Amino acid sequence: MQNISFDLEKGKTLAIVGASGCGKSTLLRIISGILPCTNSNRLQGTLSVENQTPDQYRQTGKLAFMFQEATLMPNLTVKENIELPQKIKGSNEKLKVAELIKAVGLEEYSTYLPKQLSGGMKTRVALARAFVTAPELLLLDEPFSALDIGWKSDLYKRLVSLSHTTIVIVTHDVQEAILLADEIIVLNRKGSIQAMFSVKTSTSIKDRVNDIAGFISDKSFKELFPALQQAIILEGERASVNDNRINEILKTISQSAGDESKENLIQSSLLDSIREHANEPDVHAVLIESFTKAKTDRLRYMLLWDILEFKNLSDEAHQQYFDYYLHNITPFSKMSRQWYKIKSDEAFFQILKGRIETTKGFNQKKKWIYICDFFAVNKLPELMPFLDEIENGNVTEVNFPLPKMAAQQIKTKIKSEKQDSIHIA
C-alpha cells in the first residue's frame, strides 16, 4: 500500500471499495493497530484516532472490528459469543444482549454453538457482537456479503441506529457503499487511493435505508453510482492487462506514431489501460520514442501524461516538457478542457484549483500542467489572484520552482492574449 491519506469526522461513515486483493482489509487492520510493523510489514506515516495511536485507542475498548470471517469462539454459544466483549470490558448488560439477539433474528438459536449455524447466521452473531459495546469506532469487513437482501435491509437499519459511532466499512457492493456511507474511497490494485467520492444528498443515511427503493431512484444516487462503478471497472481493466497485452499496445502506439491518419485513430482508453505501467523503464522508453515521432498534438498530449508518470524523470526533462507544453498551450489546454468535459469556466477553474491544492493521489511534480491549463479559463476573476499566490509561494502544495514559473508565464500569456483581443476589437 502507498500514498494513503484521508480524514474521517467523528460519527461519519466511510466505505472502502475496490477489486479483490487491493488492500481493503489490510487498511482496516492498519487502522485498528492489529497489523504490526515487522520486516515484512514496513509501516511508514502517521495514523491518529481521537488524537491517539491505533494501539492506544484499541486499548480503550472503544473500537470494534468485524472480520470477513465470523471468528466466533467455537466453544461458546450464540449468547456467550455476543456477551464476550462485554465480559472483557467488565460490564454485563443482559438487556442489550437480548435486544441484539432479537435484532439479528437468533432468539431460537441463542444456545447453539457456531458449528450448528449456517454461514449467514454466523455473520449475524459476529455483527451483534460488534455492536454490543456500542463502540465509538466500528470497522466492518464485508459484513453483509453472506446475507440475503431481507437480512441486509434489517441490519442496515440496526447499523445506522449507532448514530454516534464512526464507521469504516469494506464492501464490494457499490449500491451498499452509497447507501451507508458519507464518503467513499476507491483503492486500486497497487494499494493507492484511485478516487474519492462524497455522497452529496440531503437524504440522511437513516432515511436511505428505510426507503432503499426510493433512494436509488434519487438524482444523487443515479449520478454517483455510474461514476463509482466506472472507477472500479477501469481499475479492473488495468489490472487484467498482462505483459503480452502491454507489448501489443506499445507496438500499436509505436507503429502509429509518425503517421497522422493512424495517430488520430488511437483511443485514449488504449493508453489508460497501461498507465499503471508507465513507470517501467521499457514502457517509458517506448512512450518517449513515440512522443518524439508523433505528428499530431492529440497523440503528443495523450503520451505526455504517461511520460510524466515516470518517477525517475529528471527536473531538466520536466522543464523541457513544460517548455513544449507552453509552446503549444492553445491546443493542449483546450484538449484538457475537453478531457474533463467541462464547459463552465467556474467549474473548470475549481477542478484545476482542487487538483493543485490536494496532496492525495497526484504526482506532485506534474502539477504545472494544471497551472498551464488555466489558459483555457476565460477571464475568471479568481484566476489571476490564485496565480499570484502560486508565484509568491503561498500555495504550499506547489511551492517549488517549476509551478511558480508556470504561474508567472501563464499570467503573462493571459494578459497578452487579453490585450491583443482588446486591440483587435
Secondary-structure map:
Layout: E1 13-18, H1 24-32, H2 54-59, E2 63-66, H3 78-89, H4 94-103, H5 119-131, E3 137-141, H6 149-160, E4 166-170, H7 174-180, E5 183-187, E6 193-198, H8 205-210, H9 212-216, H10 219-239, H11 243-256, H12 260-263, H13 268-272, H14 281-293, H15 297-307, H16 315-327, H17 329-340, H18 345-357, H19 368-372, H20 383-391, H21 401-424
Task: Describe the protein.
The protein has 21 helices and six strands. It has helices spanning about 25-30, 55-60, 80-90, 95-105, 120-130, 150-160, 175-180, 205-210, 210-215, 220-240, 245-255, 260-265, 270, 280-295, 295-305, 315-325, 330-340, 345-355, 370, 385-390, 400-425; strands spanning about 15-20, 65, 135-140, 165-170, 185, 195-200. Mean pLDDT is about 85; it is low at about 420-425. β3, α6 and β4 form a beta-alpha-beta unit. Strands 2-3-4-1-5-6 form a six-stranded mixed sheet, sandwiched between helices. The protein has about 425 residues and is an alpha/beta fold. α3 packs across α4, α4 (about 95-105) runs antiparallel to α5 (about 120-130) and α14 (about 280-295) packs antiparallel against α15. The protein folds into three domains: about 15-60 and about 135-240, 3-Layer(aba) Sandwich (Rossmann fold), CATH 3.40.50.300; about 240-315, no CATH class; about 325-425, no CATH class.
